[in-house]
Amino acid sequence: MPLFKIQNNKAVKIEKRSVVERDIQRLIEENLKEILGIYFLDTEFTTNEGRIDTIGIDQNGSPVIIEYKRTQNDSVINQATWYLEWLLDHKEKFEKLVQAKKLEIIVDWSSPRVICVAESYNKFDLGLVKFLPFTIELLKYRLYDDLLSVDVENFQKGFKLSGSKKLVSEDDEKPVREYGKEYTINHLFRDSWKESRELYDQLKEKIFELDTNIEEKFTKLYISYKIENIFCEIIPQAKGLWIHITMPVDRIKRNGIELHDVSQKGHWGTGETKFRIEKPEEIVAALDYISQSYQYSL
Question: DSSP state, 129?
């Protein structure tokens, strides 16, 4: 769909700008956090299978491989698959990149992501992703003058493989890859944490009322909520909940619950500000802070 600029109530089509793929790679890498919510780790990362265009880690700790399709005939999806296989066999190299960037993020190997970026995809690309057992996103970009548009062309949610749920070969039905552990709400709340679990259940219901497109994800240490970027994370405790929001503390309109600036401190989650609630009466105020962060993230 073309973009239009409105001038005197008239729609004027904005012409698309041609650009070489290397420039798009550089543009996305320099703005990776803003565009895709991913922390940049390295570019042209060398492996024995070739060079990974862009390597990063998302806000939930999932390793991310990004490849750019330079021509219509590029087998970028096959190439990215090879790189993912290599990465899962060389986890220590990836974790060293995370440590070098001093990111306070725990790597979650249960859900690695592959992202392909291109101006267009053919029917073979779109058909192939349906059969891949990992999370892969096909993103389509458009560059108009000084405007960049990045849209999801196709998204395939992969397996989280653990325990008896493993990827097996057709030849011998033996496991060939175990990606990691799948976390659920029961991993985060102990049986004795009944009060904090009830508090979470009530707060969660209110969070989902903010937007029907909100996604919830369980990690080893916390629960995250996002649209395009994470705006809230809940860390369960025996008595109450710690809540992180991805909004600077000086931009928040305060309502009585004490706020803590953790932007310069190591902590679980990725938010810049955290606060704590312990009673159902605090849910309204907590939701106010979360709603502010949600609006800020859009």
Answer: G
CA angle at residue 65 from 61 to 68, to 5 degrees?
A: 145
**What pTM, to 2 d.p., does this model score?**
0.61
SS3 call for 186: helix
DSSP string, 251-267: GS---SS--EE-TTS--
Contact present, 87 and 49 (Cβ < 8 Å) = no
Check: CB of residue 142 under 8 Å from CB of residue 16: yes
Single-letter code of the amino acid located at 276 = R
**Could you report the per-residue pLDDT of 67-91, keeping only the tens digit for each?**
988 665 567 788 888 888 888 889 9
Cα 232 to Cα 60, 216, 243, 270: the distances in Å are 11, 10, 7, 9
Who contacts 233 (Cβ-Cβ below 8 Å, separation ≥6)? 222, 223, 224, 225, 243, 244, 245, 268, 269, 270, 271
Dmax (CA) of the chain = 68
